[in-house]
Design brief:
The protein is built from five helices and four strands. A hairpin with a 2-residue loop joins strand 3 and strand 4.
Amino acid sequence: MDTYRLHYFPESGNSYKLALMLTLCGQTFESIWTDFGARVTWTPEWRRTINPMGEIPVLEVNGRKLTQTAPILLQLAAQYEKFGATNDAETYELLRWLFWDNQKMSGGMATYRFLRTFTPKSDPAVLAWHLARVKDYLGILEQHLGATTFVACERLTASRHNL
């Protein structure tokens, strides 16, 4: 039986994705709160001992530290045989939407929220630009979901928007 420890930040959408996936797969995990606002992930100690990429979340599996949410979701889906792709077409769609989410949706929202919440003097024009991008990404997702129940496949999968 695997032992999971999730280094997380409560406002992190990616932290939520991993916690939800573990829960849906019937797994318990130890939550390790990380003070992202104090920039703990920027410290040399964090990068040396937890994640050299300086990011959150990190999922420890039996002491092995895994980073990058999309591949972790895919690994959990395969391991527990839940929410994964069943053929090449589904694999393509699942990967397409996971990559889009990480680059556009989550990346855009995270940047906007960081600037709005953790940067004391954010430039209003920069905030407005980022918010416009987030609204555009949400529009893309909303339009896509107008024609289908799930984002990547015809059923629940590891795509962040399906969880």
